[in-house]
Amino acid sequence: MNETAAPLVEVTGLTKRYGDTLAVDGVDLTVLPGEVYGFLGPNGAGKTTTLRILTGLIAPTSGSVRVLGGSPGQADVLGRTGSMIESPAFYPYLSGLDNLRLLAEYAEVPRERIDEVLDLVDLADRAKDRFSTYSLGMKQRLGVAAALLKDPELVILDEPTNGLDPAGMRDMRRLIRELGSEGRTVLLSSHLLGEVQQICDRVGIINSGRMVAEHNVEDLRGEQELVVRAAPRETAQSVLTEFLGAGTVHLYDDTLRVKVAPDRAAEVNRVLVEAGIAVSELHSTERALEDIFFELTTSEERADVG
């Protein structure tokens, strides 16, 4: 990832409205050269709509969108972009190979490139089978192969592991990591927190059409925190909040997550014991992206209600 180079994707104030429905609401998004960027959010959050705008499939209602230095849908931009938006569509009674041949001819791509992308997605041995006989995972991989035909600088993938079994998800993640390690820039959408945490350099979190956060994965996760199991739990939360300040203690399942440095564990334990609270567990842990996601989206939903 080149943090000093100009962004390959730069979106400012992007809005898309369908009648009375606001699908995307003032989204700002930046994708840097050479990174794997995860566009994370629950189903219906506005991810696919945003990606359709980036690939020129639909027009925004308002906002500024620049892709590879140009506007979405321009011939030069499309020639340097590969994408798979929603489920890949191919002719069912043609083989995977023949489907790619048609696309290659349309895009004026050399025939030898077909063999290269089939090898990349590990479909060479099934290339001559009809598309209709492919498993869901194979169909997804053929969709990625089609996205790679033009040897693009930017690869945009919409929920690439959607519907796959665990083995298929593992293979797809490995493929995406390989694309990133080759110096390509990958923008992928996902509703799977673990997936984004495993393969992405940076992540943008969208909820109800609005961007909630955009950070490096490690920066977003932040420093370690303390996990405390104590009884009575509500009293422990109150005591620690008074001691450490508002916003430092959160309830997670049946434990408390305390945003302090691990070297303050003895101090936290002492405060609880002196307050007559029984501490059965206290250890440090890194914050998971899942915790942060729910924390951010819950805060956003509360703000909407307020």
From TrEMBL:
The keyword DNA-binding does not apply. One of its GO terms (molecular function) is ATP hydrolysis activity. The keyword Methyltransferase does not apply. SUPFAM superfamilies: P-loop containing nucleoside triphosphate hydrolases. Residues 9-233 form the ABC transporter domain. It comes from the Bacteria. Keywords: ATP-binding, Nucleotide-binding, Transport. It holds the Pfam family ABC_tran. InterPro entries: AAA+_ATPase, ABC_transporter-like_ATP-bd, ABC_transporter-like_CS, P-loop_NTPase. Belongs to the ABC transporter superfamily. This is ABC transporter ATP-binding protein. It comes from Kribbella capetownensis.
